[in-house]
Write a structure and sequence with these properties.
The protein has 333 residues and is of the alpha/beta class. The chain is built from 10 helices and 10 strands. The chain is rod-shaped, with a radius of gyration of 34 Å. The relative contact order is 0.15.
Length: 333
């Protein structure tokens, strides 16, 4: 057990040196007083001087110096013994970033990438009761659709209505999504909060990795759930009778960038999963990698919940000072 486990302000330990310094100062002062008494009062003064140098004088110095030492120990805020208070259970906080760009309308995952992602989110909301979930929707820009909340029924309902039309700017900007998640987690404790990025991995702005590293620098893990197939798929436009075309008139084929998502997760201490395995894969990932981190932090908090005990050394210091001053009064009498 380290000093920091026993003292909340262990960095103030140099203050303890004032106690021996005070003892030396008392010795010097009493020797000087004894010499003055010998000069002024003769034999009577020598008797008083002997009392100052040893015997009761030495005991008084020890009491006053020990009292100062204990008062300084109290200033270090000792924490000894379990508090006995039941700490509030730590909840897991998960900020879900859902890609609603038009590439998520591809049908290489039935019925579409976006619908598969929404089904997984609904299953996650059902399993995460007692925890908090938040939702960021993004395409070429990002917006916070649901702040962190324990109202998971409302969370799931709002996620169900997520569509590409929610974000006016086209394209896919993973960096914007992760920046919005970081802003939404401002003030949250990193030991029980994480980010989940659900996307096909396309990153037209190329900022995802940098934004993930910034989250990691602040202590937040970023997990990635890839949806889509590496072979890719055409993107059905509204009505389903035609497919999205680029400016040259060619039909757009969108493929899962699993490597890009894995790089983001690795950069931010997270894990990457394939949503193609179904909603159960996301729930299992949550149980394995998100909740355990929060619960481990809660258990650590319980073990570290020591009771402040500064009152004990402070009370002892006052008792020692009272005794020391009593000896002084007796000598003066």
């Amino acid at each position: 057990m380290s000093a920091r486990d026993l003292f909340e302000r262990a960095e103030l330990w140099p203050l303890l040196l004032f106690a021996p310094a005070a003892w030396l100062l008392l010795v010097a002062c009493e020797r000087r007083r004894a010499r003055r008494l010998e000069r002024v009062a003769g034999s009577r003064g020598r008797a008083l001087a002997d009392g100052l140098r040893g015997g009761e004088g030495a005991l008084r110095r020890a009491l006053l110096s020990a009292g100062l030492l204990l008062a300084l120990v109290a200033a270090l805020a000792p924490r000894i013994g379990e508090s006995g208070r039941e700490l509030e259970p730590r909840r897991a906080d998960l900020l879900v970033c859902l890609d609603v760009s038009r590439s998520m309308l591809a049908t290489d995952v039935a019925p579409s990438r976006l619908e598969a992602a929404k089904r997984a989110i609904a299953a996650l909301a059902e399993r995460a009761r007692g925890d908090r979930l938040g939702l960021v929707l993004f395409a070429g820009a990002a917006e916070l659709a649901v702040p962190l909340t324990q109202d998971l029924d409302s969370f799931a309902e709002l996620a169900e209505f997520a569509e590409p039309s929610r974000i006016a700017r086209g394209g896919t900007d993973l960096g914007a999504a992760l920046d919005a998640a970081r802003a939404a987690l401002e003030g949250a404790r990193a030991d029980h909060a994480a980010v989940l990025l659900i996307s096909d991995g396309e990153d037209h702005e190329g900022r995802g990795l940098r934004a993930a590293r910034e989250l990691a620098r602040r202590g937040f893990a970023v997990h990635c759930a890839g949806v889509g197939s590496p072979l890719g798929s055409k993107i059905a436009v509204e009505g389903g009778g035609a497919f999205l075309r680029d400016r040259a008139g060619r039909e757009v084929v969108s493929a899962l960038d699993a490597a890009g998502l894995e790089a983001i997760a690795a950069a931010a201490g997270g894990e990457s999963i394939d949503l193609g395995r179904g909603a159960a894969a996301l729930v299992d990932h949550y149980e394995r990698h998100v909740r355990p981190t929060a619960f481990a932090a809660a258990e650590s908090g319980r073990r570290g919940g020591r009771e402040p005990r500064f009152q004990w050394p402070l009370l002892a210091a006052f008792l020692l000072w009272t005794l020391g001053l009593a000896f002084t009064d007796r000598e003066l009498g």
